[in-house]
Amino acid sequence: MPYNGMMDTDVVIVGSGHNGLVCGAYLAKWGYRVTVLERRDTIGGAVCTEEMFGGYRMDVGGSLHFMIHHTPIVADLELGQYGLEYIPLDPFMSAPSPDGSCIHFFQDLDQTCESIARISDHDAEAYRDFVRRWQPLNEAVFEFFLRTPTLSNLGRSLFLKKFHDRDFPRTELVRKLLQSYGRFVHDSFESEQLRAALAWWGAQSGPPPIDAMSTEFVGWHSIIHKQGPARPKGGSGMLTQALARCIEAHGGSVVPNQEVDQILVEQGRAVGVRTAGGDIITARAVVANSHVWVTYLKLLDHWTPPDLRRRIEKIHVGNGFGMVLRCAMDALPDYRINDGVPIHNGLQLLCPSTQYLTDSYADYLKGLPSENPAAIGMTFSAIDPTLAPAGKHTLFVWGQYYPYRLRGGLSWPEIEKREVEKLLGVVERYAPGTRASVRDVYVQTPPGIEAKHNMPNANVMHVEMLIDQMFTLRPLPELSSYQSPLPGLFMANAGMHPGGGIFGAAGYNCSRVVRKRVRR
């Protein structure tokens, strides 16, 4: 392979997931020649929207755009110029109860507390206090999320900050941080409805409500009232489409149907990639947007040293995470609530109690789908009519704790239909008549999620968000700085700090590391 220093591109990026595109967009804006290769025929990885069922626009990966609004990415890259238009969600989520009551979470804290006060005056004040106390800490946490996870950066962002609150001294803060979020919400609030809503929301990052040192998965909720979530008009994938256009506008290329089957190594350095079709693209740097297992155990199978291979194989990826239904609807679910607030504007948290959530997780630990799953309803067509034909709607139903590997000889093909009906049954309990409005369903089971997104074990966070796999330990200490033991190889994926979700922080941080290490 005659490289001779003449490279096809400065940076080749494996995979077009949003973190890889964020990394590529910054590098392209800074003058690097960027080439992004995507194995599927659609750009966007797990932040992608596809048309199906005759005019319904369905997300086939992540749908919740919460975290990215706490970064400078959208403004820095001027993504509005490339077709990205966000629609605010307000209330951004609601927790209905079968008795007709409902807690609504608005961006405005006062409105939220007024909603909670209809259930419990005590909890309305407790929630206000929770937001006031936890916001400064989480502003510092998000500052750290946008830095390479070194101990010095952790100190600058967190330990050197002064959180002035006589009623919430550092010792009390540390005690709370060491708790499970299940215990935290139980100790902080009286209403089971509010406890269940916050615990179910905290569970979206992965750890169950009984895990120690998980309080922060609820604590970061406090900053949503400073910058609320929003949805891209036209579907979640409009974010990645805008990022791709940004790269192309700055001279880069984003190429579908180009599966990478090997990262090329010469003289101990990553020098490019080979595609499944036999094409070779040489580069000064390779950025792996692919899963850490895919990167080192497949694309670098010929290079990965035995000791590193053993450590990577032991990374806790987990046994699945969830399944989701993408429903084409004749009508929106008719939630039986009695306050007249537009519940369809945001997420519907369908989990009646913290015990219900714990029981759902207990089934998962047995290697079985939850007998009574907790669910989230998403009705984005209520605020974005471009998602469905005139007079029609979409409903996404996310259910958690669905194992990838099933116990007792069960297989997903034999239980899929049963699990679809169980998940739809959860919505039906809160909104009778929903099942009759379903026209078609695109089902994403754990094996389907793995196959579509090349995501081992169908863990949408890539690597479990456990305390021993976070910050400077994510996914391993020697890989945590977005660099690899293989010179010339960098990593920008959800398995890196700060983790999964539609955030972009891993790509943002990786771009800065590449900029320091690789000349244009």
Key terms:
FAD/NAD(P)-binding domain, alpha/beta, 3 domains, seven-stranded mixed beta sheet, single chain, globular, 520 residues, 16 helices
* Number of structural units classed as domains: 3
User: Alpha-carbon distance between the termini?
Assistant: 22 Å
Strand content: 15-25%
Q: List low-confidence stretches.
A: 1-5
Report the mean per-residue pLDDT as an integer.
95
Q: Helical segment tally?
A: 16
Q: And the CATH topology of the largest domain?
A: FAD/NAD(P)-binding domain
Tell me what the CATH architecture of the largest domain is: 3-Layer(bba) Sandwich
Q: What is the CATH superfamily label of the largest domain? A: FAD/NAD(P)-binding domain
- Overall geometry comes to globular
Name the CATH class of the largest domain. Answer: Alpha Beta
Look at the helices and sheets and give the structural class.
alpha/beta
* C-alpha-based Rg, rounded: 23 Å
Helix content range = 25-40%
Number of strands: 18
Largest sheet: 7 strands, mixed
Report on this model:
Helix 1 (18-29) packs parallel to helix 10 (238-249) and helix 4 (121-145) packs antiparallel against helix 5. The strands form four sheets. Strands 1, 2, 9, 10, 11, 12 and 18 form a seven-stranded mixed β-sheet that branches. The chain has 16 helices and 18 strands. It has three domains: 9-50 and 63-83 and 234-316 and 463-517, FAD/NAD(P)-binding domain (3-Layer(bba) Sandwich); 109-225, no CATH class; 317-453. It is α/β, with parallel strands linked by helices.
